[in-house]
Amino acid sequence: MSFIKNSTLTAGLISLLSLTTIAAKPSQAAVIDFNSWNSTGDVSIQGSGQVNMSNSSFGFGDDTDFNPSNPDAYNYTQNNVSTEANGSLQNFVGVNNNDLDINGQAFEGSAVKTTITALAGDKLNFKWNFLTNETATSAPFTPLNDFAFVSINGVVNKLADFTNASNSSNFFDSETGQNAFSYTFAQQGNYQVGIGVVDIDDYGVTSALQVTNAEVEPVPEPLTILGTGVAAGFGFMFRRKRSKKQA
């Protein structure tokens, strides 16, 4: 009788663990298609989950670091110029006029934006690399502090500026190298999301932002949590029974 009982319990546990394994399988993250996002300035979509942007003003002659032998080194589209940050760029990403004036005055920039409908616990994930020709001696008196950012529902999250760019780069003077960004949506609702790069205190020196592996990761289904908890309970029961036998 004990053998039958144990066999039944074991079979039940195996069945439950099988169900739990299926339920616990991560939900497939949705790769972001930047073609469906709005853009302003020098923005070039590279593929699934990938977009490049710079604050270069190609063709206007005000970029002192313009490279005539390789004109696309600092400008990704060769026909789009940065958007003025006298309110236009700020309005585009949905932030206040002075929210991009971080360590200086925002002059121009480029960005992409969209509205994401999310559940509580969903995550926005992407990899990013900030590239720049800015240095501590770019300006006569103070360093020019171009930066990359993410804005979510009007709140600006700074990703990096030239002080974080210490790696060598193929075209630019330096870059940060690839980093990861992740944001968890706290509540169910619609979120206005913007990603951009800004020129601070001048038009002359270029910075850029490269985004890859952009995705929205859905929150795990409740069944996964429930199944894992029940499986843990069965595990505790087996350990307790085994302890009694040993005793």
Q: Would you tell me the structural class of the helices and strands?
A: alpha+beta
What is the overall number of helices? 3
Could you report the average pLDDT, rounded to the nearest whole number? Answer: 80
> What is the percent of helical residues?
10-25%
Run of helices and strands: HEEEEEHEEEEEEEEH
Distance between the termini: 21 Å
Total strands: the figure is 13
Low-confidence stretches: 13-25
- Described by the principal axes of the CA atoms, the overall outline is globular
In this structure, how is the largest beta sheet organized?
7 strands, antiparallel
% residues in beta strands: 25-35%
Radius of gyration over C-alpha positions, nearest whole angstrom: 25 Å
Account of the protein in words:
- The longest helix has 25 residues, at 222-246.
- The strands form 2 sheets. Strands 1, 3, 4, 7, 10, 11 and 13 form a 7-stranded antiparallel sheet that branches. Strands 2, 5, 6, 8, 9 and 12 form a 6-stranded antiparallel sheet that branches.
- The protein is of the alpha+beta class and 247 residues long.
- 22% of the residues lie in helices and 34% in strands.
- The protein has 3 helices and 13 strands; from the N terminus they run αβββββαββββββββα.
- Residues 13-25 have low confidence and may be disordered.
